[in-house]
Write a structure and sequence with these properties.
This protein has helices at residues 13-20, 24-32, 51-62; strands spanning 3-5, 8-12, 40-41, 47-49. The protein starts with a strand and ends in a 5-residue tail after the last helix. The chain has a four-stranded antiparallel sheet with strand order 1-2-4-3. Strand 1 and strand 2 form a beta hairpin. It is α+β, with helices and mostly antiparallel strands. It has one domain (3-62): Multidrug-efflux Transporter Regulator, Chain: A, Domain 2, CATH 1.10.1660.10.
């Protein structure tokens, strides 16, 4: 279930993986490689993603390499 903070919706890693149809390992690999930019963290250090983050992740999932 998404988290609301100061009127903004944030998604947890497991929610993003389900919504974008990507494995947790792949998501973390992309984050480590800097392909998705920085994500926010809650007070426990857990990653939180915005709707824009989710769009970027979906775009990467659907990207097709040419050449």
């Amino acid at each position: 279930m998404p988290v609301m903070v100061n009127g903004q919706t944030f998604y947890r890693t497991s929610e993003v993986c389900v919504e974008a149809a990507v494995s947790r390992a792949t998501l973390f690999r992309w984050l480590k490689a800097g392909m998705l930019g920085q994500c926010r963290r809650d007070r426990r250090g857990w990653r939180l993603y915005t709707q824009d983050d989710l769009r970027r992740i979906r775009a990467e999932v659907n990207r097709i390499e040419t050449g």
